[in-house]
Amino acid sequence: GQQVMQIPQYQHVQEGEDFTTYCNSSTTLSNIQWYKQRPGGHPVFLIQLVKSGEVKKQKRLTFQFGEAKKNSSLHITATQTTDVGTYFCAGSRYSGSARQLTFGSGTQLTVLP
Amino acid sequence: NAGVTQTPKFQVLKTGQSMTLQCAQDMNHEYMSWYRQDPGMGLRLIHYSVGAGITDQGEVPNGYNVSRSTTEDFPLRLLSAAPSQTSVYFCASSYRTSGGLTDTQYFGPGTRLTVL
Q1: Is B102's CB within 8 Å of A103's CB?
Q2: Would you state the torsion angle of the CA atoms of residues A46, A25, A95, A76, taken in this order, to the nearest 10 degrees?
Q3: Per residue in A42-76, pLDDT tens?
Q4: Do B31 and A97 touch (CB under 8 A)?
């Protein structure tokens, strides 16, 4: 079945440093979503990428979808303590049904003040 | 709107006990899902519903039952709890999208279940 690998599993950074998490799929994806989960909270949708090579920005967050639509990355510039949490990617082989979403194992980000 | 609500927030069961995790949404979303979250394993889909009266299995359905009698509610039943079912359970809802998009999941706050 479809597998979505996410690295690293954990990342500790000093406040102000940059952070990147990577997501790799064993199959070509139709699209990819990113979610953030604060400690003790629930996943919250951040963004969805659809097009090959697509790059989207949300303030200090930059999301990228690979040319082959098999990998994606989330980069945070100048991390802040509010960025703490676990970031998940979720890939879909087919558009439409959320049943097709496969979540990565997540990257847990700790930001040291 | 309350969004997606789940009860209880915490539950401790003994092996062999049964229980129902409740989930409700007030966004009139067609789709509802149940996931379990275990350390280092992300979120795995248990069961899924595309509308009232329609349910389907996800990646890890064994040991769980669901029903969808109304648009709003999607309870998850543990038939005979096992320690392997110790996990955090999230309910999610979504609406149908188009244009090459996949449904965005709106998650509830979760139920933390421990099976002894």
Answers
A1: no
A2: 20
A3: 999 999 999 999 999 999 999 999 999 999 999 99
A4: yes
